[in-house]
């Protein structure tokens, strides 16, 4: 035996039985996930056993399926960590072992199970900023080593903390940066987004709705996006739905900057008109031009409903109405919303009949509250 070689206990079986034993060892916590299984010759595969697992325990576990088992000591190879959660756990554990000591041991029980990725930026959940062990890390003189460990584990360049959206006119992001830049530039479903994540909000949780909107055929249509942001729905409508032209209304200067940067990156400038400022003003100049109007503000876009239906062409068109609604009230809200738009049609002599065509439940916004999108078709009768 070569000096310094790291030998480990393996169990070898015929290759045809490999899948079965791998599953059973994993289910009974007898498989060492940190080491790589090995092929022995042409006919055998060997699986590394978890620390403390004896050959007798393996035989007792597998005796009902009568496999031909062989136990052997082999040179161990550390398996690359594919699961990002495991890599993150390893990264935090390494920092605690080196810098944290017993005082930070409870940090291991508070490792986030999810996070948001925007290109090279990782945003940890907001609750991290409320947990004493993580607050201690943030005030630790070696905290930057922790952030670098996390970034290496998650294969990213920048790290920040999510925060509630600011209760201001712009619904501004309040991301707290821990390391690196908040400027992001990333590709999502064939579309480039480019913006400052510390200044504007981008909800990755709306990906299903962005793709649904992008799957609607809008060829030849003129569309109004009343709350464009950095192009969450504007870009899918132009790139994937093939809208002829989108009028994008946006108030936040930081979002407008991202909207223009994304338009350049996606080469759609000639089909996009950006209307800067209050959409209750800009929409008054867009009456009667649209085949479709997208109303993507949460918790409600009611402030511009009347202007939105007036923006449709004389023959009518579509409205996509976003809203946060209590689950049990959704049916009542659907009909109340349809009636509201019907009243606007009558009030302004538009002659539209308003029809409910679809209700999309996008995601849970809060306990018992759904983010929904109501598709209404308005047509002259």
What does this structure look like?
There is one protein chain. With 381 residues, the chain is α/β, with parallel strands linked by helices. It has 3 domains: 7-75, Alpha-Beta Plaits, CATH 3.30.70.2580; 84-181, GMP Synthetase, Chain A, domain 3, CATH 3.30.300; 203-380, Rossmann fold (3-Layer(aba) Sandwich), CATH 3.40.50.150. The chain contains 11 helices and 17 strands. It has helices at residues 18-27, 55-62, 84-100, 132-138, 143-154, 207-214, 234-239, 253-266, 279-282, 305-310, 330-347, and strands at residues 7-14, 38-40, 44-48, 70-75, 116-118, 121-124, 158-161, 176-179, 183-188, 191-196, 222-225, 245-250, 272-276, 292-295, 316-326, 352-366, 369-380. Strands 13-12-11-14-15-17-16 form a 7-stranded mixed beta sheet. Strands 2-3-1-4 form a 4-stranded antiparallel beta sheet, covered by helices on one side. A 4-stranded mixed beta sheet has the order 5-6-7-8, covered by helices on one side. Helix 3 (84-100) runs antiparallel to helix 5. The longest helix is centred in the C-terminal third of the chain and has 18 residues, at 330-347. The protein is elongated and about 85 Å long.
């Amino acid at each position: 035996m070569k000096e310094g070689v790291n030998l480990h206990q393996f169990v070898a079986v015929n290759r045809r039985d490999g899948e079965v034993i791998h599953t059973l060892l994993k289910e009974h916590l007898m498989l060492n996930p940190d080491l790589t299984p090995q092929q022995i010759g042409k006919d055998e595969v060997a699986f590394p056993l978890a620390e403390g697992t004896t050959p007798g325990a393996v035989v007792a576990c597998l005796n009902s399926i009568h496999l031909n088992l062989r136990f052997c000591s082999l040179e161990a190879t550390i398996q690359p960590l594919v699961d990002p959660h495991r890599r993150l756990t390893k990264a935090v554990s390494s920092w605690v072992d080196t810098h944290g000591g017993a005082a930070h041991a409870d940090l291991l029980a508070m490792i986030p199970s999810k996070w948001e990725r925007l290109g090279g930026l990782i945003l940890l959940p907001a609750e991290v900023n409320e947990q004493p062990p993580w607050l201690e890390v943030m005030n630790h003189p070696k905290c930057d080593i922790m952030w670098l460990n996390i970034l290496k584990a998650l294969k990213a360049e920048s790290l920040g903390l999510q925060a509630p959206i600011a209760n201001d006119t712009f619904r501004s992001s309040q991301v707290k940066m821990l390391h690196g830049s908040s400027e992001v530039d990333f590709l999502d479903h064939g579309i480039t987004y480019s913006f400052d994540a510390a200044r504007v909000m981008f909800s990755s949780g709306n990906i299903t709705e962005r793709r649904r909107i992008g799957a609607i055929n809008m060829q030849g249509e003129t569309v109004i996006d009343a709350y464009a942001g950095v192009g969450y729905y504007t870009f899918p409508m132009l790139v994937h739905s093939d809208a002829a032209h989108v009028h994008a209304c946006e108030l936040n200067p930081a979002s407008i900057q991202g909207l223009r940067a994304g338009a350049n990156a996606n080469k759609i400038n000639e089909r996009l008109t950006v209307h800067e400022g209050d959409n209750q003003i800009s929409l008054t100049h867009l009456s009667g031009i649209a085949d479709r109007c997208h109303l993507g503000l949460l918790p409600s876009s009611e402030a511009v409903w009347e202007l939105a239906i007036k923006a449709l062409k004389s023959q009518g068109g579509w409205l996509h109405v976003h809203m946060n609604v209590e689950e049990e009230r959704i049916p009542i809200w659907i009909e109340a919303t349809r009636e509201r738009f019907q009243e606007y049609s009558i009030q302004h002599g538009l002659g539209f009949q308003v029809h409910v065509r679809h209700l999309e439940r996008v995601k849970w916004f809060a306990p018992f509250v759904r983010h929904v999108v109501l598709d209404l078709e308005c047509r002259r009768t």
